Amino acid sequence: MADAATSRPAARRGRAPRPGYVRRFTLTERLLHWVHASAFFVLLGSGLVLYLPALSTAVARRALIKDIHFWTGISWAGALLLIVLAGNRAALLRTVREIDLFDRDDRRFLRGRTGSPQGRFNAGQKVNAIITAAFAVLFFVSGLLLWLGERNTDIRLGGTIFLHDALMYVSVVIVIGHLYLALINRSTRHALRGIALGTVREDWARAHHAKWLPLATDDGTRTRQTDTHARGVGNPHDTSDELTV
Amino acid sequence: MQPLLSENLGARRLGRAGFLGLLGAGVATLFYGKQISSVTSAVTKPIADATGINSIVPSSGWRIYTVAATMPTFDPATWRLRIDGLVRRPVELSYDALLALPKAEQVSTFHCVTGWTVTGVRWGGVRFHDLLAAAQPLPQAHAAHLVSAEIPYDDYLDLHQVALPDAMLAYEMDGQPLPQEHGAPVRVVIPDMYGYKNVKWVNRITLVPRQDLGYWEKLGYDVNAWVGRSNGYG
Fold first, then answer.
1. Cβ contact A19:A212 at 8 Å
2. Which residues of chain A neighbour B13 with C-beta distances below 8 Å?
């Protein structure tokens, strides 16, 4: 992958951000996001055609749509696995660790105090990532059970299709909110640049991710030695004295 | 590894707990989804009925699929079932005349091609040989064209299929007259085939020389929708 681990020489790292920009996402993270997003919409479209009589009637060709749905699901899971195996796993592990941890500011954020200083992911983004990861597993398992249920109806568990459908309904609501924040809402939509190109404006990062900005490095995810950098950025929770790498 | 900034601000590992909690809830739903959907449908059904989105709201394990904008209504005084085509004596049965025919009962499983299944459905109705006897089928009749009051829904079964011991024209479901959303007053029940062959709101049966393509088959669905086998398995 192009985004080399930070232990590699600087010359082999991804291109340095333009002045005034900081790197927020690695190529591995961006690929995971876009593969997941593209597959979601293909699976949603083909799934609705299989599920809603009105769309089944309009599109028809159930066998073809079913093949598209099934093979998109298999390709989606395979591509995610491949990206994880071939990508920047060290950075991904750090990302998982970031998402796992909810500090006091995160908890304040979730209680509605959205001005609480946030890290590279705000608490809402962490919750979204956790739900997306759990739903991905459940979508895959319930989808596989539906496919196996066609071979042998004894495998049809009472709640398989209910679970698959419920996941879809909740996901659609979440995706609508996600798209609103990424495309429409003025103060947050700059984040789209980060997931598309990897970098975001430094002033935007300071406003929205105050606790991350002082820690940002060229690869975007790693804490750097900051006992000088982390000071003086207006972070009310500046605890840089405690920071080490 | 040294601690990150967030660990110094009362950080808790809530992410993995949330992830595992969601997985647990999902797996539990696989096994208890029917009970959960009974609860949720109590909330969603009135909304679905009011908005006409019945086709996407689960109801006690059943999903109600329709192809027309509204469901056919049933008036016992005026409803008639016509049996014609390759018969010696075309007949029209009133609802009372249908109920007067020998009654058959069975408990069977209903499989939908979209992946859901309802077990232990109690049906009451008439076997096809009792139903067709009055019309006296001709020897050249080999299939039944089943026409629904939900225009343009129809389908075909061959006469061997309608003669299966658990195939019937049902007018009762779980001890009650067939509800409107399940095809009142009568629907086909053929448990060995997926639900789209179990035509609802039947008001005409025409005997024909051979099976043709029904509503969904014209849209690419399997003509003989044997459960499992029509997906290429079993």
1. no
2. 100-101
Q: What is the pTM of this model?
A: 0.70
Query: What is the pairing mode between strands B154-158 and B117-126?
Result: unpaired
Instruction: Please give the domain boundaries of chain B with CATH numbers for all domains.
Output: 14-56 (no CATH), 80-231 (3.90.420.10)
Q: Cβ of A61 under 8 Å from any chain B Cβ?
A: yes
A141 CB near a chain B CB, below 8 Å?
Answer: yes
Dist CA B102 CA B129 (whole Å): 10
Sketch out chain A's domains with CATH numbers: 20-242 (1.20.950.20)
Q: Is B123 helix (H, G, I), strand (E, B) or coil?
A: strand
Q: Is the ipTM of this complex over 0.90?
A: no
Find tokens 């089944």 and name the residue: A56
Chains A, B: CB contacts within 8 A come to 168
pLDDT tens digits, A175-209: 999 999 999 999 999 999 999 999 999 999 999 99
Q: Does the distance separating the beta carbons of A51 and B56 come in below 8 Å?
A: yes
